[in-house]
Structure formats: structure tokens, C-alpha cells
Amino acid sequence: MASIYDYEVKKANGEKESLAKYKGNPLIIVNTASKCGFTPQFEDLEKLYENYQGQGLEILGFPSGQFNDQEFHNQDEIMEFCRANYGVTFPMYAKIDVKGETADPLFKYLVSEQKGMLTEGIKWNFTKFLIDREGNVVKRYAPQTPPAKMEEDVKKLL
After folding, report:
1. Which GO biological process categories is it annotated with (predicted)?
2. DSSP percent split of the chain into helix, strand, coil, nearest 5
């Protein structure tokens, strides 16, 4: 059986990184977009990160343009937008596909572990997955769920 730690992802600079580096840390994995109605969620995600990173929480952002092309095409533009507009300091990875046949293997795994309410796949930007310290995908949050509503669940994992 696969584990979250079996996956490699591409960093914003193009280098590969194993998620095994996050063993023992609770994680929030989120697909993001810079030009979406949910984009202001970056602010609340950053607050969670600032409040709980010292206790082990890591947030991993994965930009995707699969929903109405709401993401910049250039990786540098994505990174600059997140930093300049929302002060994002949590890791942002390379732009990927999160649904369909071309979906990144990590997101195929995430949706297989936590199905959505109406669909198994990713419905929209800012679908969020909560992973415990052992690497289990314990909860999935809809795009419209504000990150602040995840705080109690995050605290339980710290």
C-alpha cells in the first residue's frame, strides 16, 4: 500500500523532493490558484502556518491552472504573486495537474484516500487535505471551507 511518503514532487525550482522529508509532521496539502475567488484563502493558510509551524505543521501548496486557467503560466509569477500579495512563506511547489488522466500521482493518491462529497476527483481550486503525523490522509475539505475552520482539526494532530 502506498503512503504519502512514497511520493516525490517537483519544487518550484524544478528539483525533485521526497515527501518523506515531512515524516512526523502533520500536513495540509492544497491545490492553489492565483486568480480564483478562493485565492484570499492564502492569507488564512499563512496564519495557520505561522501559528503552528513551530509545533510541526507544514502546508504544501500546489498551483494548478486546470480550473478556468486561473493560474499564471510562469512559475516565477506564481511565486511572486503569493509572496507579494499574501505573504506566503509555506512551501509552494511547481504547477501541476490535479485532476484527470494527467493528474500528478500525489493528487491521485490523495483523492483515492479521501473522496469528495459529490465527486471523487478535485472539483476546484483550494481543495485541502489534512495528513496526520503518520502520513494518513485523515480529512478532506471543500474549496469553500475557510482554512480557519480547519484549525481545531489541526490542533488535534499537533
Report:
1. cellular response to oxidative stress
2. 35, 20, 45
Backbone angles phi, psi at 77, to 5 degrees: -65, -40
For 54-86, the pLDDT digits (tens) are: 999 999 999 999 999 999 999 999 999 999 999
Looking at 64-127, which runs of residues are DSSP E strands? none
**Number of independent structural domains in the chain:** 1
- Of 93, 67, 58, nearest in space to 78 by CA: 93
Q: Is residue 26 included in any domain, yes or no?
A: no
Catalytic residue (choose from 5, 6, 36, 145): 36
Q: Residue 6 falls within a domain, yes or no? A: no
Q: Is residue 44 included in any domain, yes or no?
A: yes
pTM: predicted TM-score of the whole model, two decimal places: 0.95
